[in-house]
């Protein structure tokens, strides 16, 4: 399978190049940039192997069978119709096609919604929960980094209705690479080092994405409280979630439910009682590690879910989805262990 990457100079794009370097069935044949065409990718990222020269962003210059769009919202919705019409399969890393209702997209992303037909056509690429539809899709809306950690963490409890459907709280923290390679005041060293910042309080664009999937699983789910924090590290997301049990439970039963639910999901690892994951446990890998606690005094369940935002939260899940689309084992090319420390 020959693939192209648009936005290869960004963090998501270059992570795709890294992961696909050792993929046995996918070969990157063209990498594209809207601002640095003609430049070698090694001049942008000297650590890269290979002899990729960035190509212009023109339909005639794109090659292969499948295109990864690692581009900002708005850019993806502009390119996707042209790519689909030309017969490419498309996996979009941006938020453009994740929300089925265009008016919800317009409200939260504060930009014009993509074409309604494409919103209907796009398949939400949370691989573990959508394999059948991904397998036959032409357009994948790869999930956001925070929603991936959050939804994998909450799914068993929501689907089995083991929690009351209101007052779910999601407290999430991200490393700075989640904001991409572009520089801005909020992400430079003296603003982020030795600092923790809450941002986009009750206005984060991932809120409707999380709620859409939770309501698909259980239509009684209420809006969630979702808070995001920028913390002084490069990669990683930790989402800590608090929900009230619908009836008295035990930690052993909750862990059993998670293990059973994810027994055929090689990238989701559930911890034993008393063990909680940290972001280094998944650094550089496609794993989502989940730890669980239950407090009898409050009847509350705590779920801790960690991912690498650039791998399971972006490029890794995109490759996992491409594997499913092509009928290969979903782990193909993604089996490298996390880096520690
Ligand atoms: N970083 C993360 O952890 C995650 C990111 N995402 C999403 O993935 C997408 C890529 O993110 P990320 O790699 O972090 O972002 P970056 O800012 O690092 O990279 C985005 C790339 O898009 C290209 N680009 C910018 N403007 C245009 C344009 N007008 N036309 C074509 N290409 C353009 C740029 O390349 P050039 O100037 O060379 O064209 C740039 O390198 C975004 O939609 C982001 O929201 C999703 C999950 C996690
Ligand atoms: C740390 C940081 O700034 N993270 C970004 C994640 C952006 C992202 O992935 O955006 P889409 O999923 O909407 O494409 C944020 O919170 O907006």
UniProtKB/TrEMBL annotation:
Residues 2-137 form the Semialdehyde dehydrogenase NAD-binding domain. SUPFAM superfamilies: Glyceraldehyde-3-phosphate dehydrogenase-like, C-terminal domain (SSF55347), NAD(P)-binding Rossmann-fold domains (SSF51735). Its EC number is 1.2.1.38. Catalyzes the NADPH-dependent reduction of N-acetyl-5-glutamyl phosphate to yield N-acetyl-L-glutamate 5-semialdehyde. Belongs to the NAGSA dehydrogenase family. Type 1 subfamily. It is found in: Cytoplasm. This is N-acetyl-gamma-glutamyl-phosphate reductase. It comes from the Bacteria. The lineage of its organism: Bacteria, Bacillati, Bacillota, Bacilli, Bacillales. It comes from Anoxybacillus pushchinoensis. It catalyses: N-acetyl-L-glutamate 5-semialdehyde + phosphate + NADP(+) = N-acetyl-L-glutamyl 5-phosphate + NADPH + H(+). Pathway: Amino-acid biosynthesis; L-arginine biosynthesis; N(2)-acetyl-L-ornithine from L-glutamate: step 3/4. GO terms for molecular function: N-acetyl-gamma-glutamyl-phosphate reductase activity; NAD binding; NADP+ binding. InterPro entries: AGPR, AGPR_AS, AGPR_dimerisation_dom, AGPR_type-1, NAD(P)-bd_dom_sf, Semialdehyde_DH_NAD-bd.
């Amino acid at each position: 399978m020959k693939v192209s990457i648009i936005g290869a100079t960004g963090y998501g794009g270059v992570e795709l190049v890294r992961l696909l370097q050792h993929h046995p069935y996918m070969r990157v044949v063209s990498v594209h940039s809207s601002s640095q065409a003609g430049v070698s990718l090694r001049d942008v990222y000297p650590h890269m192997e290979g002899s990729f020269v960035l190509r212009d962003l023109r339909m005639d210059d794109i090659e292969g069978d499948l295109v990864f769009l690692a581009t900002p919202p708005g850019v993806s919705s502009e390119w996707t119709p042209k790519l689909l019409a030309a017969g490419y399969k498309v996996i979009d890393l941006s938020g453009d096609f994740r929300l089925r209702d265009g008016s919800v997209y317009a409200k939260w992303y504060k930009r014009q919604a993509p074409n309604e037909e494409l919103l209907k056509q796009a398949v939400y690429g949370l691989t573990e929960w959508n394999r059948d539809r991904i397998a036959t899709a032409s357009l994948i809306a790869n999930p956001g980094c925070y929603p991936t950690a959050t939804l994998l963490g909450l799914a068993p409890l929501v689907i089995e209705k083991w929690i009351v459907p209101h007052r779910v709280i999601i407290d999430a923290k991200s490393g700075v690479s989640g904001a991409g390679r572009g520089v801005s005041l909020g992400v430079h060293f003296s603003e982020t080092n030795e600092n923790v910042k809450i941002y986009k309080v009750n206005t984060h664009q991932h809120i409707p994405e999380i709620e859409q999937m939770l309501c698909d699983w259980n239509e009684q789910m209420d809006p969630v409280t979702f808070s995001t924090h920028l913390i002084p590290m490069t990669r990683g997301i930790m989402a800590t979630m608090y929900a009230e049990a619908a009836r008295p439970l035990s930690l052993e039963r909750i862990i059993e439910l998670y293990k059973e639910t994810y027994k055929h999901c090689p990238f989701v690892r559930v911890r034993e009682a008393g063990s909680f994951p940290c972001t280094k446990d998944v650094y550089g890998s496609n794993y989502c590690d989940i730890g669980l606690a239950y407090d009898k005094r409050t009847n509350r369940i705590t779920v801790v879910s960690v991912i690498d935002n650039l791998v399971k939260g972006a490029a890794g899940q995109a490759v996992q989805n491409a594997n499913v689309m092509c009928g290969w084992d979903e782990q193909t090319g993604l089996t490298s262990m996390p880096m520690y420390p």
